[in-house]
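Chapter summary example.
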Amino acid sequence: MKTTFSVISKANLTLELKKCIVLLEKASAERDFKQCSTLTKEFKKLRKLFTLADTLLVVKHYMPDLFRRLALPAQPTDLQTGETIEQKLHCSVERTIQIMSIPEPQLFIYVLLQMKLIDDGDYKNVSLFKVNSVG
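The structure predicted for these 135 residues follows.
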């Protein structure tokens, strides 16, 4: 029974992420910053549930340019035979482009990746995110 529960949890995990991103997109578009703040609290839950491989799959789909530029040694979660990334993450490429046109969902995924790298002790790759100060 435990195996069934973890499989169901894993399936619902991508739906939970999609729900957060879509709600964040809506709150951002409506300038509901209180709702945006509330949704960012989902980091803690998603951080615990997602593996680094799961997070990389999300980054690969939602932010493909960032995924290619980072070229991290870790690999995204494998897809099942015949399964597409769109099916796994419940989001078409067209919808992804629409969602990612707003900065808040981009930041949500960006920070989730940073937190997973830190959780896994991958400080070398976390340093790719550091901001160079000017002056």
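To summarize the output: DSSP finds nine helices and no strands in the chain.
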